[in-house]
Design goal:
OB fold (Dihydrolipoamide Acetyltransferase, E2P), binds zinc ion, 22 strands, binds nicotinamide-adenine-dinucleotide, DNAligase_N, 7-stranded antiparallel beta sheet, D-amino Acid Aminotransferase, Chain A, domain 1, alpha+beta, DNA replication, 5-stranded mixed beta sheet, Helix Hairpins
Length: 677
């Protein structure tokens, strides 16, 4: 423990730092550190103050909410203070909260000795809190939380948000003289992405995340700007209310809904005791990435309003509610460097090399930056402190630099002029965002990628030839194009890293099985730009042989289904290069003769009915159903004699038994997948 002097010094330092961060976050809508770092500073301050209670003062950020309001917007004094929420990250903190609440209510005679507390569970929307005042049903004022006592007047701005009624509905009963509704202003993920695109195209400020975008959009001096921003609102609380209160928090929200206020009913849940809270937390956690908007946790509130009054408040938060936070989806780290990778078509992709950082449940060490324009748009410099975001299973993204912390020796990124792999020139055609290595198949990087493409499942479908093996084969100059695949032997392959006789034999068998690919697969495997799997099949059916495709001029190419000038031009350019033609000739010489492309079937699963049951290893049942429907099959909820197949995963129950009883074939996900090809 720190001695008194050291503690007071550290406290002063922490308070100053936190105040500065509060200002950046609440006033400038542009945080200078991540929430995780901020929470750590706050946690340290709470701990030192707890050890030295005599040092706690009312000005400490631990005792206060938010930040003093922005003067330009005009202040509004809250009739009922707007507070923050206590929070819990771990199960034991949550159980401790439930115990505190239960004990206090039992002591007050509000709960039986073995009774569980009833909580109303809500999402913790990651936006900003707002207080909207209705007098006799009309919206008269709206204010941000500010420092909890005084907020900013954003009445004109709030009136531009379409989902917020200017007048409350009066279908059921007369509206009260005063009703202050509280809730969250936020932005959907898709709207946020679109807004940032627009901002970037105009050279305007990019927002780090939807929360800051929502706050920045609402706290505008000119409401016309707010009106253009896609803001949303959900009500979850209240301030001054001039009518008798119902008994329960949930009844209050039901009443709000009848008044025409937006309430997030679908995600609400009533829980009895801590274990049910944890179930809710888990369930919402699984849905988090698919909600379409950011939440940073869930909130549990004692449902009984009389019990809430018994529990009361501490300095900056109620005792009857708690935020149960999810792991952060954003973190800050240092952009150590920008490397470039070379893709199959020579595309040069800049990749951020990051100081390893734990975010969204994994350690992130690099992230794609897509292309040079993206780096300029985000204004990323090497050496910058950057915000990294990883939401759900989405690949990690470098969102933005923290300009306030750009070091003096930060370096501007310059696209290299030569390919780091083969030394050929890197070129960027004027109207393209992508820079490319001009080395073609001379470039080992492109050769590796194009070979990986050629052996992939939808092309030649050669198993066992993974990235590692291809890397080695290309580096030892053994593979130049797909032609060389067909002369690989078991003896030579067995000598490569992590290859035994057996796996070498499997690879060779798989290669031999690919000697007679369908024409569509062969065309696809050549890796012609803009020629995807479907186009390749269409071309195969239309031209009937590789030679006719090679011979076709632009007009002839465009006569094929769905082939326009871009695809036709790309095919023409491909076969205009001698080394590509050489591949076609060599394949023929090696006796690699494709089968004619089968006539297009209506769809693979036409007329077949599937029933899905149990947990599939990869797909969710919804995903599997979507795939079946897309392939022309039907999905049914119950097994009958008409069912063609039952797809069973683990823990399959009565449907599986029924299928066996009726003699309906039972397949697993792998078999289903093979049917879909
Ligand atoms: N990065 C930074 O520099 C920085 C600075 C300040 C604050 N912060 C972040 O903000 C947090 C503190 O902010 P805070 O005091 O607003 O607390 P908070 O955001 O943790 O919790 C309180 C807020 O939750 C919101 N909320 C969302 N859904 C709700 C619901 N259903 N019911 C009730 N409230 C709901 C309300 O806006 C309310 O004001 C910190 O823990 C940190 O994560 C970051
Ligand atoms: Zn190259």
């Amino acid at each position: 423990m720190l001695d008194f002097i050291a503690a007071s010094e550290r406290i002063a330092q922490l308070r100053k730092e936190i105040d500065q961060h509060n200002h950046s976050y609440y006033i400038n809508d542009s945080p200078s550190i991540s929430d995780v770092e901020y929470d750590a500073l706050m946690g340290e301050l709470v701990a030192i103050e707890a050890a030295h209670p005599q040092l706690i003062s009312p000005e400490s950020p631990t005792q206060r909410v938010g930040s003093a309001p922005l003067s330009a917007l005009g202040g509004v004094t809250h009739q009922v203070p707007m507070l923050s929420l206590g929070n819990a990250f771990e199960e034991d903190e949550l159980r401790a909260f439930d115990k505190r609440v239960g004990d206090a209510l039992r002591a007050a005679g509000k709960l039986t000795s073995d009774g569980a507390v009833e909580y109303f569970c809500e999402l913790k929307l990651d936006g900003l809190a707002i207080n909207i005042r209705y007098e006799n049903g009309l919206l008269v004022q709206a204010a941000t939380r500010g420092d909890g006592q005084t907020g900013e007047d954003v009445t004109a701005n709030i009136k531009t948000i379409k989902s917020i009624p200017l007048k409350l509905r009066e279908d059921h009963e007369p509206v009260p003289a005063v009703l202050e509704v509280r809730g969250e202003i936020f932005m959907n993920a898709a709207d946020f992405a679109l807004l940032n695109e627009t901002q970037a195209s105009r050279g305007d400020k990019i927002f780090v995340n939807p929360r800051n975008a929502a706050a920045g959009s609402l706290r505008q001096l000119d409401p016309r700007i707010t009106a253009q921003r896609p803001l949303r609102f959900f009500a979850y609380g209240w301030g001054e209310v001039s009518r008798e209160m119902p008994a329960l928090h949930s009844e209050m929200l039901d009443w709000f809904a009848t008044l025409g206020l937006p309430v997030n009913h679908t995600e609400h849940f009533l829980a009895q005791g801590a274990t049910q809270l944890l179930t809710y937390y888990q369930r919402v956690g699984e849905k988090r990435a698919t909600l379409g908007y950011d939440i940073d946790g869930v909130v549990y509130k004692v449902n009984d309003l009389a019990a809430q009054r018994v529990l009361g408040y501490v300095a900056r938060a109620p005792r009857f509610a708690i935020a149960h936070k999810f792991p952060a989806q954003e973190a800050t780290t240092t952009l150590l460097g920008i490397d470039v990778q070379v893709g199959r078509t020579g595309a040069i992709t800049p990749v951020a090399r990051l100081d390893p950082v734990f975010v969204g449940g994994v350690t992130v060490t690099n992230a794609t930056l897509h292309n040079e324009d993206e780096i300029r748009r985000k204004d990323l410099w090497i050496g910058d402190r950057v915000v990294v975001r990883r939401a759900g299973d989405v690949i990690p993204e470098v969102v933005a630099p923290i300009l306030a912390r750009r070091p003096v020796d930060a370096r501007y990124f310059v696209m290299p002029v030569a390919c780091p792999v083969c030394g050929s020139a890197i070129e960027r055609v004027d109207d393209e965002t992508i820079a490319r290595c001009t080395g073609g198949l001379f470039c080992a990087a492109q050769r590796k990628q194009s070979l990986l493409h050629a052996v992939s499942r939808k092309a030649l479908d050669i198993e066992g030839l993974g990235e590692k093996l291809i890397d080695q084969l290309v580096e030892r100059d053994r593979l130049h194009s797909i032609v060389d695949l067909f002369s690989l032997t078991v003896t030579e392959l067995a000598e490569y890293d992590r290859m035994g006789e057996k796996s070498a034999q499997n690879v060779v068998d798989s290669i031999q099985a690919a000697r007679r690919p369908t024409l569509g697969r062969l065309i696809f495997s050549l890796g012609i730009r803009h020629v995807g799997e479907t186009t390749a099949r269409d071309l195969a059916r239309h031209f009937g042989s590789i030679q006719s495709l090679v011979d076709a001029d632009i007009d002839a190419l465009q006569a094929a289904p769905d082939v326009g000038p871009v695809v036709a031009g790309s095919i023409k350019r491909f076969f205009a290069e001698q080394h590509n033609l050489d591949i076609v000739i060599a394949l023929n010489a090696q006796g690699i003769v494709p089968e004619p492309e089968p006539v297009a079937q209506l769809s693979a699963l036409n007329g077949k009915t599937f029933v899905l049951t149990g947990t599939l290893p990869v797909w969710s049942r919804d995903e599997a159903a979507a795939e079946i429907l897309a392939a022309g099959g039907k999905v049914s909820g119950s097994v009958s004699k008409k069912t063609s197949f039952v797809v069973a995963g683990s823990d399959a129950g009565s449907k599986l038994a029924k299928a066996t009883e009726l003699g309906v074939p039972v397949i697993d996900e792998a078999v289903l997948r093979s049917m879909l090809h």
